[in-house]
Amino acid sequence: MPRPAERGLTLIELIVTVAILSILATAAVPVTVLTVKRERERELRRDLWTMRDAIDHYKDAADMHAFQTKLDSQNYPPDLETLVNGVEVQGKKVKFLRRIPVDPMTGKAEWGLRSMQDDPQSDSFGGQSVFDVYSKALGTGLDGTKYSTW
Q1: Where are the domains of the chain?
Q2: Are 110 and 137 within 8 A, CB to CB?
Q3: Torsion of CA 74, 68, 94, 57, to 10 degrees
Q4: Who has greater pLDDT, 42 or 14?
Q5: 14 CB-near residues (< 8 Å, 6+ apart)
Q6: Among 40, 22, 82, which Cα is nearest to 57's?
Q7: Alpha-carbon distance 69 to 83, whole Å?
Q8: 98/41 Cα distance (integer angstroms)
Q9: Helix (H) or strand (E) holding 85
Q10: In Å, how far from its chain's centre is CA 131?
Q11: Which distant-in-sequence residues (6+ apart) come within 8 Å of 114 by Cβ?
């Protein structure tokens, strides 16, 4: 009695298929890692721009005498929380920032701060006022620069 045609994969076909899928998966992992890093860097740049823009708006309003600031602050905010909590301007609360963003590189809402009195490359904050913000991440970006210099 003749045997009916058997259906299915032979062991060699199965091994070849698994090997091809493994090679494709191995090639996809670095691309995925690179894409995730690029997106986090894009988010870091956007967050830094947002906070620096809020600092600039605060200073512009203070320069126009919309509210009082400390004499030695040069009209910059004392901290980032002031940008979130807002200041009283003609009986209204004006906020410059909705929230302090989380640093996508460290996963924390902690940022390095610089005042006008600090050295531009310093990583210690004098505490007088917030002139600039930077990431506390120790890594290096895809462009070869350190995150803390962005």
Answers
A1: 12-149
A2: no
A3: -20
A4: 42
A5: none
A6: 82
A7: 13
A8: 21
A9: helix 80-85
A10: 18
A11: 120, 122, 125, 130, 131, 132, 133, 134
pLDDT at position 14 is: 87
Rounded distance between C-alpha atoms, residue 137 and residue 146, angstroms: 8
DSSP at 122: -
Residue spans of beta strands (DSSP E) within the chain: 87-89, 92-94, 112-114, 132-134
Residue in the structure block whose two tokens are 């090679």: 23
Name the band, by pLDDT with cuts 50, 70 and 90, for residue 6. Answer: low
Q: Position of tokens 């009695």? A: 1
Q: Which residue from 73, 58, 43 is spatially nearest to 150, judged by alpha carbons?
A: 43
Give 69: exposed, middle or buried? Use CB within 10 Å, 0-12, 13-18, 19+: buried
- Across all residues in the chain, what is the average pLDDT? 89
Measured between alpha carbons, how far is 136 from 140 in angstroms, rounded to an integer? 11
pTM: 0.78
